[in-house]
Amino acid sequence: MRIGITCYPTYGGSGAVATELGLQLARRGHEVHFISYAQPFRLGQFHERVFFHEVEMDEYPLFEHVPYSLALAVAIQDTAEKHDLDVVHVHYAIPHATSAWIAREMLGDAGRLPVVTTLHGTDITLVGLHPSFHRITRFSILKSDGITAVSDFLRDETVRDFGVPAERIDVIPNFIDPEAFRPDREPCHRGVLAPGGEPILMHVSNFRPVKRVADTVEVLARVAEHRPARLVLVGDGPDRPRVAERARELGVEERVLFLGKHDSVAELLSCADVVLLPSASESFGLAALEAMACGAPVVATRVGGLPEVVEDGATGLLFEVGDVEGMAQGVRALLDDEARRAALGRQARERAVECFAAERIVPRYEALYERVIREVTGS
Ligand code: GMT
C-alpha cells in the first residue's frame, strides 16, 4: 500500500510512534509518505520506500498565526494525488484530523481518500477539551474512516468526553522495536553517567508540566539520604529551569545530570537501573515501554494508560500522583535488593517483547488500513 502519515515532528511520543510505524511499514514493503512542517525527529535514517513532504507555508503580514491546518490540508491533497495514496494516517487529532477531512473533501468522490486518525493523549484529555477545539475535534474524529486509541483508557475518555461510539475506536497500543530497545545496547555509557559507579535513576520526557519532572528530583533526594544514586534527566522543555532550581534547593544538584534532547534514548535507557515516570496524566507512556524493553523496572504513577503498560510489582511499581515518599521507598527497596530489581527488569523486557513488539502491533495497523480501504473504495 501507499500510505501517507502526518504527525508532529517534534520530540514527543506521538511523533516517535508515527515515525517508527512508517519505518516498519516501509520495511514490510509499503511506500510511506510523511507529510509535516518538518522532518520527524526520529526519521534520521534513509529508507528507499520512505519519503518526506514538507508543508509549505508563507508568512503574510496580515496573519498573526499562519493557518497551518489549511496548508497541511493542501499538502495532504497534493501528496495523495501525486503519489496515488491508498490511505492517510494522521497522528494526534488536532489539527491533523481536520486537515485530512478538508483534503478528502477537496479530492471529491473521484479521489475518495480513506483517513485513519490515531488519538494519542492530550488531543483528548487536555487540548481537545478546550472550548476552541472540542467541537471541531469531535467532528473531525467522527469524519475519520478509521479511529484508533493507544490505550483502553484513552478509548474510554474519547467515548465519555467526545461521544464517539466505542465500537468505532480500535485500541492499538504503542509499540517498540525490541532490537533497537534492548538491555545490552552498546556503547554503554554507565561510566560517564555515574563515574562513581552509583545506581542510575533515569527520566525521559519533553519536560512539560504534565510530566511532573520535579518529582524525580524529590525522589532522588529521598533515596540519596540513604544510599548513593544518580539521576539522569533526558529531554528538555519548559519545566527544566524549575527542576534545576529544585535540585539546588534540595542540595542534590551534584547528583543530577541534565543530558538535554537525545534521539538515541535507547543507548541511554539501557544504562538505567530504574526509570521514573511520575506523570500527572499519560494516555500510554511510551517512555515507560521503551524503558521496559531496555530491561529497566519502571517506577511510575497509577494514571491513564500507564497501568496497561507497567504491571505493578511485576515490571515496575505504581504510585499515586505526587507520592514521592512512596516512590522513593520503592526505588530504595529495588536498589537494596539487586536480585529483585533484576527480576523486575527481566520481566519488564519479556512483557515489552511479548505484548508490544512491532511485529505484533504493526500488522494490526495494516489490517485496519485494508479494512477502511475496502469500506471506502469497495476494492
Ligand atoms: O498528548 C501529548 O501530549 C502528546 C503526545 C506526545 O506526542 O508526546 O503524548 C501522548 O502520546 C504518546 C504516544 O502515544 C503517549 O505515550 C503519551 O502518554 C501521551 N501523552 C499524554 O497523554 C500526556
Features:
379 residues, 13 strands, binds ligand GMT, six-stranded parallel sheet, 43% helix, seven-stranded parallel sheet, Rossmann fold, 15 helices
Describe the structure.
- The protein is of the alpha/beta class and 379 residues long.
- The protein folds into 2 domains: 2-175 and 358-377, Rossmann fold (3-Layer(aba) Sandwich), CATH 3.40.50.2000; 190-356, 3-Layer(aba) Sandwich (Rossmann fold).
- 43% of the residues lie in helices and 16% in strands.
- The two termini are 13 Å apart.
- It has helices spanning 13-27, 68-82, 93-107, 122-125, 134-143, 152-162, 190-193, 214-224, 240-249, 265-269, 286-293, 306-309, 324-336, 338-356, 358-377, and strands at residues 2-6, 31-36, 50-54, 87-91, 115-119, 146-149, 169-171, 200-204, 230-234, 256-260, 274-277, 298-301, 316-319.
- The strands form 2 sheets. It has a 7-stranded parallel beta sheet with strand order 3-2-1-4-5-6-7, sandwiched between helices. Strands 10-9-8-11-12-13 form a 6-stranded parallel beta sheet, sandwiched between helices.
- The protein contains 15 helices and 13 strands.
Q: Termini, distance in Å?
A: 13 Å
Supply the helix-strand structural class: alpha/beta
State the helical fraction. Answer: 40-55%
Question: What is the strand tally?
Answer: 13
What binds here, in terms of ligands, is: ligand GMT
Low-confidence stretches: none
Q: Report the order of strands and helices.
A: EHEEHEHEHHEHEHEHEHEHEHEHEHHH
CATH superfamily of the largest domain: Glycogen Phosphorylase B
- CATH A-level architecture of the largest domain: 3-Layer(aba) Sandwich
Widest sheet, order of strands: 3-2-1-4-5-6-7
